[in-house]
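Consortium newsletter contribution from the modelling node. Members have asked for a concrete example of what our holo predictions look like. Here is one, prepared for the magnesium ion complex that several groups have been discussing at recent meetings.
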Amino acid sequence: VTRERVFVALGSNLGDRAAHLAAAREALAALPDTTFLGASAVEETAPLGPVAQGPYLNQMALLETDLAPQALLDALLAIERREGRIRRERWGPRTLDLDIVTYGDRTVAEPGLVIPHPELGNREFWRREMEALERYVA
Ligand code: PH2
Ligand code: MG
Ligand code: MG
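And here is the predicted structure:
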């Protein structure tokens, strides 16, 4: 398997938001066959989308991994569940959201997994965080 660089977006707008992001960073760093290369600053952002909800803390992480996209997604969903994520409505409030934004330069289009993330073009803060991380990580 080839080691690929993967940007993973972290988001939280329920409960102790900073603690959920911190737990997520630790869990990402502990993933098998994966190196945690770094993370952007945490920023507070106004909620996007149709659901009225509280503000988010968002952050971007950069990993290098041998996990295939679907295996990585499964691991991210398990971390979300460990942080108490309950899926009620699409785009609703959540303790922790972990999204694969890009996976090397691969494209994936499967039920439940689209890479690059379809929201990348709409989220200026994601692109800014990714640029900051790329400058910072060798
Ligand atoms: N994620 C959503 C919906 N709305 N708004 C902000 N500010 N940040 C998010 O990460 C976010 C959102 C669905 O995943
Ligand atoms: Mg999301
Ligand atoms: Mg998600």
